[in-house]
Design brief:
43% helix; 128 residues; alpha+beta; Sufe protein. Chain: A; three-stranded antiparallel beta sheet
Length: 128
């Protein structure tokens, strides 16, 4: 059902946790399935220096969060905005049809964090 890469990112997720002084935070959820993803970024000079996530959801939600963070870490903000759910799925060697929404959430969470960064003008939000 799941590829080896999905199972690896579920069992050994990369970039789990929070960044206390993040200057970009995005949170998205899917009420239908109950998955919630929160992405934290430390962006300097328009480059994503660090990125972490906290995800409440199924194995596919955790795996897509993990892969998406790996794919944007070290990239420019503009490059990260080009991340698509299809790219996340391909990097994981596919997802079952009923789990494609998890890759969409991962894309949306990354984009939400970058929108937050732009709204803040790159400043840390002291009122998290």
């Amino acid at each position: 059902m799941y590829s080896e890469k999905v199972m690896d990112h579920f069992a050994n997720p990369r970039n789990v946790g929070e960044i206390p002084d993040a200057n970009a935070i995005g949170e998205v959820g899917n009420a239908k399935c109950g998955d919630i993803m929160k992405i934290y970024m430390d962006i300097e000079d328009n480059i994503i220096k660090d990125v972490k996530f906290k995800t409440f959801g199924c194995g596919a939600a955790i795996a897509t969060s993990s892969m998406a963070t790996e794919m944007v870490k070290g990239k420019s903000v503009d490059e990260a905005l080009e991340l698509t759910n299809r790219a996340v799925m391909e990097a994981l060697d596919g997802l079952p049809t009923e789990k494609i929404h998890c890759s969409v959430l991962a894309e949306e969470a990354i984009h939400s964090a970058i929108e937050d960064y732009k709204k803040r003008g790159g400043k840390v939000n002291e009122n998290k």
